[in-house]
């Protein structure tokens, strides 16, 4: 049985950010390494009163290792022809951390369309997790099998990320979060709306010039549009900076439309006017201000806080310390992790 990893034990999983995969899959790997995938066994270990048996086979506790490898349904996936190009004793005999690392660093090529195993594997475990959630939460309704989804996503990733024979159609830029200048602070804010309009949250965080966490915040908004959620997130960030009497602040958000709204003087009437005006007024109260657009890939701490906000039991929370949901992204930013961003070559983004 796996042991929960304490927050204080030295963590050896930073390699996950270098794995050649989609950002959401890298995050999933990071959570696997931290034993924080909410399988039934993990939830029970955290004190939740819950049945620990695997919901798929009901024959063993649902540990992360069971879910991703040892459950009969996962074995079916791994053994479906062709099997992993890794020694079976190693594949089925190693512990979770070794297993993840071994497969994510494999130099073998899979016979499946000649795609590298290190590309197929992480996408495979991600799809096993999605499938499990579909069984638990959606009565098993899924689009496609784990195998077909994994192969098509791995092919797409290999094509977009690695196939340089088509440089004219897409190219990959590397993006990362950057620290503000000396003596400046940076606010990253984001809004999240599940559907547009839909149940929305807002959130953000303030870091100093060394990248240190100053404060974070999240807000439950109720049903609104994504633009309104972005504006709420910015407004809360501005208010917090004013309360903290910060003198020089860079505000960074991934909604280009909102950045443009703040820079424009025009007063074309729309439903967000009050929020826009409130943000503009607040920005004037801070002596030195810069508002800039960033890519989504470098705004993931704020995104995590916004998603947290959508499900808050209260209206607004200020976090003195980073919540667990944000930690992986904070670590990634602090270690200057570069993320792939696929950009259309002709786009003006
Ligand atoms: Zn099972």
UniProtKB/TrEMBL annotation:
Q: Which domain of life is it from?
A: Eukaryota
Q: Which residues form a coiled coil?
A: none
RNase H type-1 domain boundaries: 181-311
Alphabetical list of InterPro entries matching this protein: RNase_H-like, RNase_H-like_dom_plant, RNaseH-like_sf, RNaseH_domain, RNaseH_sf, RVT-Znf
Query: Which GO molecular function terms does the record list?
Result: nucleic acid binding; RNA-DNA hybrid ribonuclease activity
For this entry, the protein name equals RNase H type-1 domain-containing protein
Supply the source organism for this entry. Answer: Castanea mollissima
């Amino acid at each position: 049985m796996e042991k929960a990893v304490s927050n204080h034990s030295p963590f050896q999983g930073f390699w996950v950010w270098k794995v050649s995969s989609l950002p959401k899959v890298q995050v999933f790997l990071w959570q696997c390494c931290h034993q924080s995938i909410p399988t039934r066994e993990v939830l029970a270990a955290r004190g939740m009163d819950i049945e620990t048996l695997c919901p798929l086979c009901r024959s063993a506790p649902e540990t992360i290792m069971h879910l991703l490898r040892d459950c009969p349904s996962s074995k079916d996936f791994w053994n479906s022809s062709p099997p992993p190009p890794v020694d079976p004793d190693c594949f089925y005999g190693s512990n979770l951390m070794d297993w993840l690392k071994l497969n994510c660093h494999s130099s073998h090529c899979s016979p499946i369309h000649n795609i590298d195993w290190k590309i197929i594997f992480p996408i495979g475990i991600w799809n096993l997790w999605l499938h499990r959630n579909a069984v638990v939460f959606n009565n098993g309704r899924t689009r496609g099998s784990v195998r077909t989804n994994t192969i098509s996503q791995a092919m797409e990733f290999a094509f977009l990320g690695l196939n340089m024979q088509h440089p004219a159609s897409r190219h990959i830029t590397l993006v990362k979060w950057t620290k503000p200048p000396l003596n400046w602070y940076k606010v990253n804010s984001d809004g999240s709306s599940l559907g547009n309009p839909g149940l929305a949250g807002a959130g953000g965080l303030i870091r100093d010039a060394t990248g240190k966490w100053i404060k974070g915040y999240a807000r439950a908004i109720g049903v609104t549009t994504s633009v309104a959620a972005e504006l709420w997130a910015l407004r809360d960030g501005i208010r917090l900076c004013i309360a903290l009497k910060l003198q020089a602040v860079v505000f960074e958000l991934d909604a280009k439309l909102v950045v443009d709204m703040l820079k424009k003087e025009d007063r074309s009437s729309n439903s967000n006017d009050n929020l826009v005006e409130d943000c503009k007024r607040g920005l004037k109260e801070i002596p030195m201000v810069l508002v800039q657009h960033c890519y989504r890939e470098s705004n993931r701490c704020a995104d995590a806080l916004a998603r947290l906000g959508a499900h808050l039991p209260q209206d607004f929370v200020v976090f003195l310390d980073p919540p667990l949901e944000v930690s992986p992204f904070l670590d990634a930013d602090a270690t200057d992790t570069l993320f792939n961003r696929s950009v259309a070559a002709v786009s003006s983004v």
